[in-house]
Amino acid sequence: MTKPADIFEAMPGRFDPAGAGNWETTIQFKLRGEDGGDWVMRVKDGSCTVEQGTAEQPKATIEMDAATWVGIHTGTVNPMQAFMTGKIKVTGNMGEVMKLNNPAIFRR
After folding, report:
1. The pTM is what?
2. 3.30.260.10, 3.30.1050.10, 3.30.1490.20, 2.160.20.10: which CATH number matches 4-100?
C-alpha cells in the first residue's frame, strides 16, 4: 500500500529541471490522519528536495488528510474536486501549488 512518505520520497526522482526552468519555491505539506505528518518540498537551482519537518516561510502551505494525498497520487482522487469540496486547503501562493500537477515539471 502506498503511504505519503513513499510519495514524498519519489518526488525528487520525478522532478524534471528542464520543465521547471528557473522555478524556485518552498511548499509546506501538512497531512492529517494515519501516516500523516509535515513535509517540506524545496525547488532551487534545478533540483528538488523533500524532507520531513516544517519551513519557516513557505510560499504555500497545503493541508489535507493523508488518504487524500495518497488518492491524488494513485489516481483515485481528483485534486481539483478535492479542493473544491474542501478536502484540500491551500494558503499562500496558489500558483506554486498548481505547478505540482504540471507533467513537464513532475513526471507521472
Report:
1. 0.94
2. 3.30.1050.10
